[in-house]
Amino acid sequence: MNDRDGGVSGEDSNVLRDQRVEKLQEIREDGIEPYPYNFTRTREIADVLDQFDGDLEEETETHEKLAGRMVGFRDMGKACFFDLKDGSGKLQGYTNIDLLGEQDYELLKSLDIGDFIGVSGPIFVTNRGELSVKVKDVQLLSKSLMPLPEKWHGLKDVEKRYRQRYLDLLVNDEVKETFVARSKMISSLRRQLDDEGYLEVETPLMQPAAGGATAEPFVTHHNALEQDLYLRIAPELYLKRLIIGGMERVYELGKNFRNEGVSTEHNPEFTTVEIYQAYADYEDAMNLTERLISRGTKEAVGTTQPEVNGEVLDLRPPWDRLSMVDAVERATGISDLAGKSAGGLRDFAASKNLDVAGKDDFNWGEMVEFLFEEYVEDDLFQPTFITDFPTDVSPLAKTKRDGDRQLTERFEVFVGGLEVGNAFTELNDPLEQRERFSGSGDKETKDEDFLAALEYGMPPTAGIGIGLDRLLMAITGSESIREVILFPALRRKTE
Hints:
By secondary structure, this protein is of the alpha+beta class. The protein is built from 15 helices and 20 strands.
């Protein structure tokens, strides 16, 4: 059985593995070490392509030492062509029995797709015009015991892609591009915030109270302290403590954890950047959010106007701004939303055949948010700030400065139909904050230590949280959050 092209599974895969193990033993018996300790490259393949592609008339006098996986092989008898792929690109290799000598040539011909090799030789252009390396020396660097999936044309099994991300990265080039974009976005956000004078800090992942957001936490137990702790659902209350302590511009980029459902938009652990600035409000936060995301997108994917699912997503500032009340009134046709009761809004939703089961105790703000999610959220493709959330669903935000205590100075930012950020003019009145916590029942955990800190005084402050996973989904057109997380949470596989 020949597995030069890969693309086998099940029993065939087991047979081919056995064959490769036999080859491994034969290679060792021939005195060749199949797993050497290192190989010194002169450069990456992308550098060769950049320097010589389309501009090489004669083969180079210098020899390049290149390394990577063999991902294709074409046997011509006493000559052969193969494809060598490293982390930067792919280059054709050519050699023959005269260039390599009989022993090394037979070694090369015996190797399998997926094996790592190191080669040395000049760069030249074949008669068919393809840039190649003329191999005069070859070394096995790592023997692959398993065949690559689906003949190198792509791994399509979604379950396998997520569980075996290494195979996904090997055979689907666009997957690697997504995670390169993710890395560039994170680097850009850090660089921008550092340049604007923000200090990166770290706060506890295990916390004695699950505060800062409304979510079900993961619970663990600390044996030495003899107490339960919670994996953080948000770093907000700790970052505000730093503002109180005189650190006027801080941010944290890291993981949060929520013990809730898994969906295309939710993973139990996710990455955010949270930012706090003293003497600022949510208008300042909107301006900063525009700057961070637009520049971050340019650095991540090369443009502020990426094409997403056939439509141009224009992230150039300024972005649209629309209050939640206005958005719901426009979408539903309801007039004077502020004057409606929670029961009236629930009756309206029921008349439109929306599922209102379990919402009998929803207050006015919760019903407004429900109608917004049903009628507005999915249509917000271009970047949009939805502002002035109901106080009922915003226990950490200051009420509107115009005196309307039904609404707060809070916004969420939507990109590509996804909510990717949340921000407030932070509530800094300790008495009102305690009252808000008490009024929210079990929806927002009351953190007594934070309330004590707030009584020492917190200056006017703007806070922002941006979800990196959803942001990457939006700018890359990914349909699931699992496409932008290298190792997403999956149900345990049963045999």
